[in-house]
Design goal:
By secondary structure, this protein is α+β, with helices and mostly antiparallel strands. It is built from 6 helices and 6 strands, in the order ααββββαααββα.
Length: 208
């Protein structure tokens, strides 16, 4: 991942970091985000519709008023759908170079990237904004900082992060954990502060 970051993100002489506006699969970030949605979806299930009339599917009677849920966690952790599904492996999305809404809107459900935004007519209406924001946030964080597991000050041994330590519930989120975050260089810090100053200046018009 380190090689991808250094080779595809904006150079230091580009304070606006304009390259981060591009959803570029070559950077590795889009595939990483898709894999994150696959391995640890924020919702284990998603309510997608309610029947307005009696119906039948595959021999099952579904009475009016029935709720239908998408079992997101079960789908994402099915060996039939994703081989070696427990392992974080962004390479499994090699060739998936479009945004999630493109795959969600396709009639070929077998080629969905993931179900993190739901499916059908009740697909998350903010999918376009959400995925682009996640891409930009992840790309900028990786451009600006180095992330590493903490080191025990007494033994010098690395304290591994437990990637299975999640809050148990329908809404999935990692429990608090420790991580070391360092800026990549003094020049990166300068650019971050300059960008922050510009952003705060822009927001001043909304103070009243």
């Amino acid at each position: 991942m380190e090689t991808d970051v250094s080779g595809h993100f904006a150079p230091m002489n580009d304070p606006g970091m304009q390259l981060l506006n591009e959803y570029r699969a070559g950077s590795g970030v889009p595939h990483m985000l898709k894999e994150g949605k696959h391995v640890a979806p924020c919702l284990v299930a998603r309510h997608t519709l309610t029947f307005t009339a009696d119906d039948e599917y595959a021999g099952y009677f579904l009475p009016k008023g029935s709720l239908v849920f998408i079992p997101i966690w079960a789908l994402h952790h099915s060996e039939a759908e994703y081989s070696d599904h427990e392992r974080f492996n962004p390479d499994r999305f090699e060739g998936y170079d479009r945004l999630a809404n493109d795959y969600a809107g396709s009639s070929d459900f077998a080629k969905r990237d993931h179900y993190g935004f739901g499916a059908g007519r009740r697909l998350c209406p903010g999918v376009h904004l959400a995925e682009r924001n996640m891409w930009r946030i992840a790309a900028k964080l990786l451009w600006a900082f180095e992330f590493s597991e903490p080191v025990d000050p007494e033994t010098g041994a690395v304290r591994p992060i437990d990637d299975e330590d999640y809050y148990a519930g329908i809404l999935q989120a990692p429990n608090p954990f420790k991580v070391v975050i360092k800026p990549r260089s003094a020049e990166h810090v300068r650019v971050i502060k300059a960008e922050m100053a510009d952003a705060l200046g822009f927001l001043e018009q909304f103070d009243e």
